[in-house]
Amino acid sequence: MPDQQTDLAFCQDQLRKFDPLHHFMALASLEIHRPALMVLHCFLDEIERIPLQVSEPTMGEIRLQWWLDVIARENTDLEGRDGLENIGPVASCLKLIQRNYNLSPDHLIQIIEARKFDLYNDPMPDWDTFETYAGETEALPLLLAAQILNDGIVPEISDLCGNAAMAICLTKQLTNFARNANRQKLYLPFGEFSEAQVNEAQIWVLESEEDIISVLKPIANKSHDHHVQAQQEFNSLKEKGQAHLGSAFLELALVSARLKQWKKKPLAPKNIPLWKQYWSIWRYGR
Predict the structure, then answer these.
(1) 2 pLDDT band (50/70/90 cuts)?
(2) What is the mean pLDDT of the chain?
(3) d(Cα 19, Cα 44) in Å, to the nearest integer?
(4) Confidence tier at 116 by pLDDT (50, 70, 90)
(5) How many CB atoms lie within 10 A of CB 38?
(6) pLDDT at residue 189, rounded to an integer
């Protein structure tokens, strides 16, 4: 029967394979918290990949529901594993850190529920919906990572999480715009395109490029503004005695690089070499 160390090693290997950036970021944290951070991001990566692995939304709904059931399950005998080996190493380790770090099941459930949007081709309707999506897919993971780094105590960093999430989420959607359009997915508010007389069919084939870019430019500026605010709040962590939370926000290091690359060729697929991303994260975390 696998033990906890074997399961933790599995999560670490999975994260290194499928999400090397967050694996690298976890290595910047205190050694005592690294396994929990790797488990958290292994779980996050696994549910994020579900929409790309299923042939129809119903199958994705079933897999996400399985995770919802895992989160809702109460375990009273984690030391004895209570049958946890039967739910797989990632889920077993997630339940372990959920208890050890007092992670809110409501937060984990919100993150899972948000991924249902990824299963369907409905465009993101407006800014309110986008901000909710960014909050659930980016801000909550940042908060949970910071909670792990804070020994299980929820830190008061809502503004930092909110601005960082918007900056990160917006730049991801800008740099992945062409790839998502090819999948007939629009994560940026469709209302912005509708006002510019750009319809869904034009987006899917990247027709009327000038009109599309004219919509995307203010969105890039919005991402930059959130990044500036998040950077100011990040820099103040030391002044507030919260420097130990810094490694939870290392992805902010990539926002400027992503925006710079996007501006060069807005509608071209983007791929910053991994070593350059490592370098940016390393310098940012010093």
Answers:
(1) low
(2) 93
(3) 10
(4) very high
(5) 27
(6) 98
Residue 286 pLDDT > 80, yes or no? Answer: no
Q: What is the CA radius of gyration of the chain?
A: 19
- Kind and range of the H or E run holding 178: helix 177-182
Tokens 């529901």: give the residue.
Answer: 65
Residue 153 region by backbone torsions, left for phi larger than 0, else alpha for psi between -120 and 50, else beta? beta
CA distances from 255 to 77, 141, 149, 280 (A): 42, 17, 22, 10
CA 201 to centroid of chain Cα atoms: 28
DSSP string, 213-244: HHHHHHHHHHHHHHHHHHHHHHHTTTTTT-GG
In the chain, the domains with their CATH numbers are 1-107 (no CATH), 121-286 (1.10.600.10)
Using a pLDDT cut of 90, give the percent of the chain over it.
87
What angle in degrees, to the nearest 10, is found between the helix axes of 89-100 and 105-114?
140
Note the pLDDT of residue 270: 75
pLDDT recorded at residue 86: 66
- Tokens, residue 205: 């084939």
Average pLDDT over residues 48-69: 96
- Tokens 């129809």 correspond to 56
State the Cα–Cα distance between residues 25 and 131, nearest whole angstrom. 25
Closest CA to 112 of 17, 44, 162, 201: 44
| Helix or strand (DSSP H, E) at 131 | helix 127-134
